[in-house]
Amino acid sequence: MQEIGLVELSQIIYDYCGLRYNERLPILKDKVSKRLLELGLSHLEYCHYLKMSPSEWDVLVELLTINETYFYREENQLNECCSNLVSLMKSSNRNRPIRIWSAACSSGEEPYSVAMLIQETGIFQPGSVEIIATDINKKVLQKAMKGWYHHGSFAFRRTPEHLLKKYFLDEAGGYQIKPTIQKMVQFHYLNLLEEDKVSQIGVVDIIFCRNVLIYFDYETTKRVIRNLYQNLAAGGFLFLGHAESITETTLGLKKVDSDTSFYYRKESD
């Protein structure tokens, strides 16, 4: 009975957020065992509990998702975005702000890194760039919105010292993002599989969705890319992790190779 319940649990997790555990049942069992012990439920009973108490998904997602990240991760892509692509957009005629979306922002290091590098260009007026940051894990979103990181955090493993001093306040045993950077980023909860909710993000010029697709199977990857594509402006850019490829699911996305990185560009409609 426990095995049947574990299989059902893996399926409803897949349906909800695309994470695939049907071939990794022992890993799933280990991740949820403590929570089930707290609730006094079997795997099958927990499946019913999720249906009756939707807020429990917040707890489960926190147990399942990996939120390993840090400031200036894969910085060649960040530099490609900020020094080249964003500058190129700035030089064109526009009637709206440049919009950048960090589609799986975790605890905020990625969108804050983008914000700091945009500030470093020195060419953008306040309000000329909007950064939207979303994640399915509400707990890490709360941390991201606070913008405070412990001194010993691995989040700073690649942070240049001069930027740490320029954009952070040293307080209470950690580093606090300065308000000038913090207010550049808007954080929202979002499940990338919910097409109607994703569409509410609106048109964006640049999307970062890095190190997310590696956790999905082919069909889920197609769904996510399709949802991202619908929001991406014609001529806009999509950045994935270096280990990720969407060669067979690109729709109207063309791969662009630079000297130091790669990304995808949406062809004109």
Please describe what this structure looks like.
The longest helix has 16 residues, at 2-17. This protein is α/β, with parallel strands linked by helices. The strands form two sheets. It has a seven-stranded mixed sheet. The mean pLDDT is 90. It contains eleven helices and ten strands. It starts with a helix and ends with a strand. It folds into two domains: 2-64, no CATH class; 75-266, Rossmann fold, CATH 3.40.50. Keywords: Methyltransferase, S-adenosyl-L-methionine, Transferase.
Supply database-style keywords:
single chain; 269 residues; alpha/beta; Rossmann fold; 2 domains; seven-stranded mixed beta sheet; 19% strand; transferase; EC 2.1.1.80; protein-glutamate O-methyltransferase; S-adenosyl-L-methionine
CATH class of the largest domain: Alpha Beta
Mean pLDDT: 90
CATH H-tier superfamily of the largest domain? Vaccinia Virus protein VP39
Which stretches are poorly predicted, pLDDT < 50 over at least 5 residues?
none
Which structural class matches the secondary elements? Answer: alpha/beta
Helix content range of the residues, please? 40-55%
Put simply, the count of helices is 11
**Would you identify the CATH architecture of the largest domain?**
3-Layer(aba) Sandwich
- By CATH, the topology of the largest domain is Rossmann fold
From the N-terminal CA to the C-terminal CA, the straight-line distance is 52 Å
| Total of domains | 2
H-E order: HHHHHEHEHEHEEHEHEHEEE
Count of DSSP E strands?
10
